[in-house]
Amino acid sequence: VGKEIYTELLDSASVSPPFVQATKSPHPTAANLEELFLDFSFTKFFKKQQDIVTKALDGEDETETENRIDTHDEIVAGYKTLIMEQDEEINRLKFMLAQGSP
What we know:
Elements: H1 3-14, H2 17-23, H3 40-58, H4 62-99
Helix pairs in contact: 1-3, 3-4
C-alpha cells in the first residue's frame, strides 16, 4: 500500500461518525454496548499516533511532532481552565442575583 493510500485511510478513520462522536466527550454516550464502537481515550491515542505516523511517512522528526502535540494539549488545557473559571463566575453571579445582592 502506498503512503498516500495509507494516509487517506488514517484520515478517513478519524472523520468517521463513530470516531467523531467518541471525541466529543470522555464519557461514553452510547445508548447500549452495541453502539459503543470507540472511546475518548482511544481517539486521543489514535490522533497522536496518526500524526506521528503521517509525519514519519513524510520524513518529519518524531520529536517535532510530539512537541506540536504537547503544545496543542497545552492550548486545550488552557481553554478548559478558562471555561471552568467562567462557569464558576457565572454560577457566582447567578447566586448573587438570586440572593438579590449587587
